[in-house]
């Protein structure tokens, strides 16, 4: 398929009101609109009408303060400001100074350089870049876009740009590449990711080619040798074009173009708009090269412990907003007082010796105990597995065979529609995870759709927990409007929460476009607080825990496999997670989020109040190794 046909296809996908969406039948969003405008700019006259309507959509989401934010989305999510500034500059628009000025004001907060935090990570927390949301910390992708935008718009010599580029270099790996922000967590090195690596290289182009830049080029070159993922290939091509004089001899851009074309053919015309736009930009051989920037010398910046002005603005909320928030708090306290515990807290533990067992029959026998409370017939059922990231030979995610069995159960119970959905906090490119993990093959076999919750339409809901002090939560519409919502976690330990089970799994229903990657704001507001706020606001109807092979030790990513041979099911998620903790030899009374869940009447925790169906806990309990340094995150043992 030639580039002119691709542009024609992209133009036809424009929303009627102008702009482009992430997926069909969704209203327009800022990011896909920006990338689509950049892709069509190679033939501006031919697509003048679509470009004009796309620009009008951007301006319809302009705030009076110079920022750009999706008006129907989370107000604090200002990260699209940099993308819009970059796009407007690339299109040759004028009057960019107010936007650039506001972008400079939206820089991230500075973390306090306390010894405990320094023990967890090895980056310079005093460096400021750009956050995903106002009042938050700086992360790689928004920082790369902030530097790109200011350089493209003619503000590259501002000291903030030099500091942002320093931040990118500081967070890059010596061995090559970068992820969304942390090189090391709790003494373990993390893994680089292709897309943020490419964006880092684009931001750092035409500066000094430092060893970490050259290592990042080599990492990306090695990754593309084996990759068939269209998004990774396209971003890599754009990054390589910006560093053409420093590419390894083994890298063939012609071979990379062929790989992109092959990925396009394999998609059979069913491409998300972002990927289609990226393919056009990567394959464009004309003079329209929006990502190519003039040289820039990085000036060493003095780091500062000054807090972001945004944080100060948030703390001085207008009086009227305080009154409204107080009224909402009063209403929520009243609802909490009359909230009732779940009608039943029964939990079923079933023997499941391996993933090759007849899992459907096992689940069906378990579900007989819950079908009256959670009928599936005629319902739209959304399944939320735990899909964090993919590492070969690690038991990080809910096994696809368990997901397959639950899909089959739903079909046999007469569900009108089954949807599998997830919004990982570590990877934006969820299509890559779905394919690599084996889940894609399961979905294809069952003809079941997958929804990327990170880019789903945001759905504003009153926060029914208030522990995070957030008045509202923005959930993925697919989950918020499901008839039946089922949490499908993996049985794992967690280095901050103690355990990650059916409740911690709910972090994935908050869209990344509202909270960023990783969803770190949910961490610094308190992981237990965030878990319970989300669960009270959007409570799953059922949980099915994959405990056939769990993870012990440094979970949720770096632990070791622990065969347990069970599937655990229940409709009271506090009871389910408490039971799973007991199976792991962890006292649930020591897990803060479970204690909060009990206090908020989300569910029951006491062993005596949880009817155990199927196997007893004692029959399958094992002592799981706990994560290192977990004691300070757990409630002290009773004297």
Tell me what you see in this structure.
By secondary structure, the protein is an alpha/beta fold. Helices cover 41% and strands 11% of the residues. The strands form 3 sheets. Strands 3, 4, 5, 6, 9, 10, 11, 12, 13 and 14 form a 10-stranded mixed β-sheet that branches. A two-stranded antiparallel sheet has the order 1-2. The longest helix is centred in the middle third of the chain and has 20 residues, at 319-338. The chain is globular and about 70 Å long. 53% of the residues are buried.
Share of helical residues: 40-55%
Average predicted local confidence, pLDDT: 92
End-to-end Cα distance, whole Å, is 70 Å
What is the beta-strand fraction? 5-15%
Contiguous runs where pLDDT drops below 50 for at least 5 residues? 305-319
Number of helical segments with 4 or more residues:
26
Please outline the major beta sheet.
Answer: 10 strands, mixed
Number of E-state strands? 14
Radius of gyration, rounded?
25 Å
**In one word, what is the shape?**
globular
Structural class: alpha/beta
Topology:
Blueprint: H1 3-12, H2 30-40, H3 48-60, H4 80-90, H5 97-105, H6 115-120, H7 140-152, H8 159-171, E1 184-185, E2 188-189, H9 194-203, H10 211-226, H11 230-242, H12 253-267, H13 273-283, H14 309-315, H15 319-338, E3 347-351, H16 359-367, E4 380-385, H17 400-412, E5 417-422, H18 430-437, H19 439-446, E6 450-452, E7 458-462, E8 472-476, H20 477-480, E9 484-488, E10 490-494, E11 498-500, H21 512-515, H22 521-524, H23 527-537, E12 542-552, E13 560-570, H24 573-583, H25 592-599, E14 612-614, H26 617-620
Parallel strand pairs: 3-14, 4-5, 4-9, 5-6, 9-12, 10-12
Antiparallel strand pairs: 1-2, 3-13, 7-8, 10-11, 12-13
Helix pairs in contact: 1-13, 2-3, 2-4, 2-13, 4-7, 7-8, 7-9, 9-10, 9-11, 10-11, 11-12, 11-13, 12-13, 16-17, 17-19, 23-25
């Amino acid at each position: 398929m030639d580039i002119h046909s691709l542009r024609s296809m992209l133009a036809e996908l424009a929303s009627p009101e102008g702009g482009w969406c992430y997926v069909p039948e969704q209203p327009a969003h800022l990011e896909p609109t920006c990338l689509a405008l950049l892709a069509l700019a190679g033939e501006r006259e031919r697509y003048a009408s679509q470009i004009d309507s796309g620009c009008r959509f951007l301006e319809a989401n302009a705030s009076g303060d110079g920022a750009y934010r999706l008006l129907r989305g989370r107000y604090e999510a200002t990260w699209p400001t940099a993308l819009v500034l970059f796009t407007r500059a690339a299109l040759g628009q004028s009057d960019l100074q107010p936007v650039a000025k506001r972008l400079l004001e939206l820089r991230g907060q500075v973390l306090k350089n306390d010894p405990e935090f320094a023990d967890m990570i090895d980056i310079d927390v005093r460096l400021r870049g750009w956050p995903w949301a106002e009042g938050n910390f700086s992360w790689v992708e928004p920082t790369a876009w902030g530097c790109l935008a200011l350089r493209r718009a003619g503000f590259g010599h501002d000291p903030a740009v030099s500091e942002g580029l320093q931040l990118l270099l500081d967070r890059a790996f010596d061995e090559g590449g970068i992820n969304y922000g942390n090189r090391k967590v709790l003494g373990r090195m993390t893994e680089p990711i292709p897309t943020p690596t490419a964006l880092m290289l684009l931001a750092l182009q035409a500066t000094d080619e430092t060893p970490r830049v050259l290592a990042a080029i080599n990492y990306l070159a090695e990754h593309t040798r084996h990759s068939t993922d269209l998004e990774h290939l396209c971003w890599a091509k754009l990054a390589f074009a910006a560093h053409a004089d420093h590419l390894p001899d083994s890298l063939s851009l012609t071979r990379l173009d062929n790989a992109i074309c092959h990925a396009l053919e394999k998609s059979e015309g069913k491409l998300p708009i972002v990927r289609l736009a990226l393919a056009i930009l990567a394959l464009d051989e004309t003079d329209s090269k929006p990502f190519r920037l003039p040289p820039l010398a990085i000036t060493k910046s003095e780091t500062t412990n000054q807090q972001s002005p945004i944080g100060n603005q948030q703390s001085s909320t207008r009086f009227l907003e305080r009154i409204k928030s107080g009224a909402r708090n009063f209403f929520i306290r009243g609802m909490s007082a009359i909230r009732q515990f779940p009608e039943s807290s029964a939990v079923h533990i079933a023997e499941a010796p391996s993933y090759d067992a007849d899992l459907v029959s096992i689940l069906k026998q378990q579900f007989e105990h819950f079908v009256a409370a959670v009928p599936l017939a005629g319902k739209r059922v959304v399944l939320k597995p735990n899909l964090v990231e993919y590492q070969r030979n690690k038991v990080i995610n809910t096994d696809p065979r368990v997901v397959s069995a639950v899909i089959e159960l739903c079909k046999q119970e007469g569900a009108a529609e089954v949807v599998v959905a997830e919004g990982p906090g570590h990877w934006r490119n969820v299509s890559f995870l779905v394919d690599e993990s084996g889940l894609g093959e399961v979905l294809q076999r069952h003809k079941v759709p997958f929804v990327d919750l990170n880019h789903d339409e945001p759905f504003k809901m009153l926060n029914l927990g208030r522990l995070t002090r957030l008045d509202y939560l923005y959930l993925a519409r697919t989950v918020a409007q499901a008839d039946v919502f089922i949490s499908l976690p993996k049985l794992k330990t967690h280095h901050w929460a103690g355990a990650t089970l059916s409740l911690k799994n709910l972090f994935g229903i908050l869209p990344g476009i509202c909270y960023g990657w990783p969803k770190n704001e949910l961490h610094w507001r308190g992981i237990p607080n965030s878990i319970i706020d989300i669960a009270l606001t959007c409570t799953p109807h059922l949980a099915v825990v994959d405990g056939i092979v769990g993870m012990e030790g440094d979970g949720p990513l770096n632990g070791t496999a622990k065969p347990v041979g069970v599937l655990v099911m229940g409709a009271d998620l506090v009871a389910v997670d408490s039971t799973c903790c007991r199976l792991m030899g962890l006292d649930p009374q020591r897990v803060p989020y479970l204690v909060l869940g009990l206090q908020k009447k989300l569910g029951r925790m006491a062993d005596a109040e949880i009817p155990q169906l199927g196997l007893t806990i004692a029959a399958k309990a094992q002592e799981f190794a706990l994560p290192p340094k977990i004691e300070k995150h757990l409630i002290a043992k009773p004297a």
